[in-house]
Design brief:
- The protein is α+β, with helices and mostly antiparallel strands and 415 residues long.
- The protein has five domains: 3-49, no CATH class; 53-124, Sandwich (Immunoglobulin-like), CATH 2.60.40.4130; 132-259, Ferric Hydroxamate Uptake Protein, Chain A, domain 1 (Beta Complex); 265-281 and 357-407; 290-350, no CATH class.
- 21% of the residues lie in helices and 33% in strands.
- The chain has eleven helices and 22 strands.
- Strands 12-17-18-15-16 form a five-stranded mixed beta sheet. A four-stranded antiparallel beta sheet has the order 5-4-7-8, with no helix packed on it.
- A hairpin with a 3-residue loop joins strand 20 and strand 21 (376-388).
- Helix 7 (290-303) crosses helix 8 (311-324) and helix 8 crosses helix 9 (329-337).
- The longest helix is centred in the C-terminal third of the chain and has 14 residues, at 290-303.
Amino acid sequence: MKATFFMQRPITGLRYKSVAALLACGSMGMPFAVAAETAGEWGNMAKETMQQTQKVSGTVVDKDNVPIIGATVVVEGTSTGVITDLDGRYTIDMPAGKNKLQFSYIGYSTLTVDVNSRAEVNVTLFEETVNMQEVIVVGYNTVKRGQLTGAVDMVKSEKISNQTSAALEDRLQGKVAGLMISTGSGQPGSSDVKVRIRGTGSINGSNTPLYILDGVMIEAAQFASLNNDDIADIQVLKDASATAIYGSRGSNGVIVITSKRGKEGRTSVNYNLKLGTSIMRDLKNRMMTGAENILYQTYCAEQNPDSNQFPLMHLLSLESKEKQGTISASELAELNAGRGRLESARATDTDYLDLMTQNGFTMEHNVSVNGGNEKTKFYVSGSFLKQDGILKESGMSRYSGRFNLDHYCPVKVDK
């Protein structure tokens, strides 16, 4: 290093002296002026200082080339970071020895980029794909199951799609802890179904839970008529913390239904056929046959020979007297007049339960078409369900259809 110092008041022995000597003079209050040759070591030191940081700028956009406002740009391994402006632009000073920038934004995958001495780095962020098996929909947002503190149960479509019951409540039976379902009628398609999530909380008021389909409130009858194959999952929100966002309407619990949506990729067509049967259980106490009925009434007639309360029993009593030879002429005339009725009773062996009941047959056809691209996704489905009841002349037929269309329309607002 080479420097020349000029003193305003010359002091012997200090001309061309070292920097240490000059600083010593300054500490003694001696004014001086310095003329230095900025070369050699001083020049190298200045150059080294300027190279300690590198200014990098660029733009952050999404897959549709729309600027992302408020995206975070951080030098990896440091706390140095900035956010993008209204045009998605950023400028950041990178410390020496650092070569990677990390770009992140809510709902998008984090991206790490090597700078490699570039002055401008433009990046594109893509939406993050969420695994729905680990996410619970609560109100207007989604929460990971591990971070959820409320009492929530989820029923995936795989658990209910193989059932052929016409009522969706029947498909939830036994799949959610604490969910009580009772039906007041066995008629197929009956809406007389009671669902209780948090028990009975009111005597005069409603105890029916709140039903939400894709963010829209629906009635219990609409929930019962939904097609199994159109449902992606059903979430049952039980406690107050899970249902708080719905206010007083969620006081009886909330059932959140998410329907299936279109998927990006090739158009796919799905068809399935479900068949089932309903069989009446064997009754422990069966009806008597015609012969057994005659024997029973004969026994009753012998125990009450003078009873006229039941005509058939009275005729059987007269017949018993005839066999014993104790019948009078008037009674014999009465017996002869009723012999046709006795023969008809003995010949009758009708199983009325068998005449009224049958084995119920259930058939369901489902067809769906889904597909789409990055911007537009669609899901179209149709279903036909025919279910026979156990009682003859009972049953139902149902036609249903659903059309879900999702279209992403980016809107850019100019300043």
